[in-house]
Amino acid sequence: MGHSETLPDLLEVSSGSGSGLPLLVQRTIAKQINLVHSVGKGRYGEVWLGRWRGEKVAVKIFFTTDEASWFRETEIYQTVLLRHENILCYIAADIKGTGSMTQMLLITDYHPLGSLYDYLQKITLNYYSMVRLSLSIACGLCHLHTEIFGTKGKPAIAHRDIKSKNILVKRNGECCIADFGLAVKYVSENNELDFGSNPKVGTRRYMAPEVLNDTLNMSCFESLKMADMYSFGLVLWEIARRCASESGSKYLLVDEYQLPYGDLVPPDPSFDDMHEVVCKRDLRPDIPLRWHCNEVLKTMSKVTQECWHANPAARLTALRVKKTLHRLHVPDGTKIV
Questions:
Q1: Which of 115, 309, 246 shows the shortest CA–CA distance to 317?
Q2: d(Cα 125, Cα 308) in Å, to the nearest integer?
Q3: Model confidence at 2, in pLDDT bands (50, 70, 90)?
Q4: Residues that are catalytic
Q5: Which residues are noted in the entry as ATP-binding (predicted)?
Q6: Is 298 annotated as a binding residue?
Q7: Highest-confidence range of 179-193, 242-256, 264-278, by mean pLDDT?
């Protein structure tokens, strides 16, 4: 590799399959990265800001107990034609042994605005920024869920852990979907589902009713996609709460950030907590009254509720959400493109 090469250049001229850099280049990059400081921790490990030849990258370091998640994420990110502007850009993966310790690294683009969860707590949205965030997630999810046919085709992929903490906000006001440790691949040609070797399940707070009551058909890919759409509905609700709308006077109204079901379950809800609220009581997060007084928020409300419908077959697809949001005109006359 010549020293004049930058990451965008390398990614542009890599295999051409949209599945990342050659393995040798990945390992070389991984060895040359300097870790700057930690930017977050999760159940899988820790994320660091790193530098490679002056460029910022995100370095996800997995706990040794979570090798299956590292392996699965790496495998999914290397899927042919996965690359998309609303899916986190994968750069490299490597395993580093330091004698007494093994580090499993996943290197991706760095997004300084952080996760959607963090972002929504600090920012008040207008109609345009709300729809832009929401539409970009729908675009990323639609690309994931869609099988692309051909010699260099792409399998359909279900994420299985959609939540605001697994979505990153880009500087341009769009989002990209991250964290593919639980993802499932499906190729219609041989009707095979590939779950990988990771036995873990998703985040309880965002689990669809059919997951909580154990009626999800794990051998049907359509069912897995619809479980993603339920979780996406909850994320749309999180976003829309933070959008300011006009009251009868000059004042703007906005709701405080809240996690879905934040007023109904404990901060770290158990499986039983969620089952009681979502399945037995058939409750969903409250739709604020102010959403009904504005066409944009009214549309968001309708889309949200159709995504989290108790019946998976009645939920919207990612493509349908994408088309609906794409047609929306925000009050200042700007069309979301």
A1: 309
A2: 23
A3: low
A4: 161
A5: 60
A6: no
A7: 264-278
Q: Which residue has the tokens 């392996």?
A: 71
CA–CA dist 218, 87 (Å, integer): 24
Q: How far apart are CA 242 and CA 247, in angstroms?
A: 15
Q: Which residues of 169-188 are buried (b: 16+ CB within 10 A; e: fewer)?
A: bbeeebbbbbbbbbbbbbbe
Within 10 Å of residue 1's Cβ, how many Cβ atoms? 12
Residue with tokens 């990209």: 176
* Residue 280 DSSP one-character state: I
Contact of 209 with 278, CB cutoff 8 Å: yes
Q: How is residue 256 annotated by DSSP? A: P
Higher pLDDT, residue 157 or 23: 157
- Residue 154 CA neighbour count, 13 Å, CB half: 22
With beta carbons less than 8 A apart as the criterion, state whether 94 and 142 touch.
Answer: no
How many Å apart are CA 163 and CA 142, to the nearest integer? Answer: 16
- d(C-alpha 75, C-alpha 304), whole Å: 31
Q: Are 211 and 85 in contact (CB under 8 A)?
A: no
Residue ranges of domains in the chain, CATH in brackets = 7-109 (3.30.200.20), 116-326 (1.10.510.10)
- C-alpha to C-alpha distance for 136 and 113, rounded to whole angstroms: 16
Give me 7's structure tokens.
């990451």
Q: What angle do CA 89, 91, 94 make, to 5 degrees?
A: 135
Please determine, for residue 148, whether its predicted confidence score (pLDDT) is greater than 90: yes
Residues for the chain: how many in total?
337
